[in-house]
Amino acid sequence: xxxxxxxxxxxxxxxxxxxxxxxxxxxxxxxxxxxxxxxxxxxxxxxxxxxxxxxxxxxxxxxxxxxxxxxxxxxxxxxxxxxxxxxxxxxxxxxxxxxxxxxxxxxxxxxxxxxxxxxxxxxxxxxxxxxxxxxxxxxxxxxxxxxxxxxx
Length: 152
What we know:
This protein has helices spanning about 15-30, 90-105, 120-125, and strands at about 5-10, 50-55, 60-65, 75-85, 115-120, 130, 135-140, 140-150. With about 150 residues, it is of the alpha+beta class.
């Protein structure tokens, strides 16, 4: 059973320095230290909603960002999906994505949502309703594939 998390959904300017620090630190632990060097914070952060999930002790266990439509893609784009290493294997990634999709449906009713998924995660995202819409490509030396979730 996944951890029960308290969710924060905020624009970049409304995150506050402590929440922003925690989100960037978690992203760095996973995306830089585990997966290899690349530029994680980018200008898209400033044009995004950020979803942060804290446990009962206030520790950040999961986060993602949703880039505004028109910044990266025509659709809103979920990205920088991350769970804390110590919280893995509990279904938290699925809960995080479900919460992110729910927030997208509220913010942009009737709009599709695009992701650039690591190719090996295609079955995970497929189970959430995303369909592949591109061939595989390399992003930061990791195979990726664009996937689209369409409202039903």
